[in-house]
Write a structure and sequence with these properties.
single chain; alpha+beta; five-stranded mixed sheet
Length: 343
């Protein structure tokens, strides 16, 4: 029977340790995620600024190309008009040449020269007109390309903006959850400290660290040496603590028993400091349940023996400091886990 009891206690200690490590890991993961998202947020802001600058440059270039295209279109219309007029003149000269073919040779040569000159001028204007048409086609192609590039840049900018908004919201949500948890922890710490104010000079301390509230009770407040039976003064303190904790259904309560490094010299069902620390933690957990309406599922009892000392010195004062019970109150992080799982 004693072997079974010891096995159960050791198993409870392992489960408590895993829960504690899981909660520490979850909070660390949240902090890392917040730092990573802030870093990505900075990178996205920088990329957004670059895209906006590129977009403005592209719009200026597009405006210039459109202006050039308009000028070239005007020139093309003028060249077309001139071409039509020259063609009309050429036709008239042909007609006149036909009429004067039988006239004098001098007039014929003059008209022939004028016709040849008109042909050359017409050819030159046709060449210029062709060049203008090619240049206009290239300009229009550039305008189309610039328009597409501008559209692509706007789409990328909008995508980055949406990503930035989503990441900013996640960061804001994470920070909001952490702020609410921190605020709740501070309020809980203050409530506990006020409730246990009368025990501040009797070996009881309340502090906040790592997002948790730590209530530390020295051995002298709870137990006689080598015993795991809580005395009346300790029961009074634990009853007051239980009244505060019963109003906090969303917290986990880990009771840890700690001893010094002096080997246990008792008899009976307690073999060593491991057994003693576990029995003390179990006694306190039971007292918290008996004197309050705390949900048993919130409670975990664990024996830490001598292996987590507050003071490693081999002195009487250090050993007295190490003989303690710590009640660690941890807010549940369900809301934070949901945000992280949504990544």
């Amino acid at each position: 029977m004693s072997v079974l009891l010891i096995s159960i206690i050791l198993l409870s200690s392992c489960v408590a340790e895993r829960r504690y490590q899981d909660e520490v890991s979850a909070r660390a993961k949240a902090e890392e995620e917040r730092a990573r998202l802030k870093s990505e947020n900075i990178g996205l802001n920088a990329r957004t600024a670059e895209l906006i600058t590129d977009l403005q440059d592209a719009e200026r270039q597009l405006k210039g190309l459109k202006s050039d295209t308009a000028v070239m279109s005007t020139s093309l219309r003028r060249m077309t008009t001139n071409y039509d007029k020259l063609n009309e003149t050429y036709e008239k000269l042909l007609d006149q040449m036909g009429k004067l073919r039988e006239g004098n040779a001098a007039d014929t040569r003059r008209l022939s020269q004028e016709l040849q000159s008109a042909r050359q001028d017409l050819q030159e204007r046709e060449d210029k007109l062709h060049d203008l048409e090619l240049a206009l086609a290239r300009k229009e192609g550039n305008v189309d390309k610039m328009t597409k590039d501008l559209s692509d840049a706007k789409a990328e900018l909008e995508d980055k903006r949406l990503q930035l908004m989503a990441r900013s919201k996640r960061i804001s949500d994470l920070e909001g959850v952490l702020a609410r948890k921190d605020s709740a922890v501070v309020a809980l710490k203050n409530n506990i400290a006020n409730a246990l104010l009368g025990f501040a000079d009797q070996g009881l301390t309340v502090e906040q660290k790592n997002g948790k509230v730590y209530v530390s009770l020295e051995e002298q407040l709870l137990f006689k040496s080598g015993s795991w039976v809580v005395d009346s003064k300790g029961k009074e303190a634990l009853t007051k603590l239980g009244k505060v904790l019963q109003t906090q259904p969303e917290v986990g309560i880990l009771v840890e028993g700690h001893t010094d490094n002096v080997p246990y010299g008792g008899n009976g069902n307690v073999a060593d400091n491991w057994d003693l620390s576990a029995k003390r933690a179990t006694s306190i957990a039971k007292l918290l349940m008996e004197n309050s309406s705390i949900n048993p599922t919130q409670l975990t009892a664990a024996g830490r023996s001598e292996y987590l000392p507050l003071d490693a010195a081999d002195t009487k004062e250090a050993r007295a400091k190490n003989r303690r019970t710590e009640i660690i109150i941890t807010p549940k992080l369900n809301e934070l886990f949901k945000i992280l799982e949504g990544n």
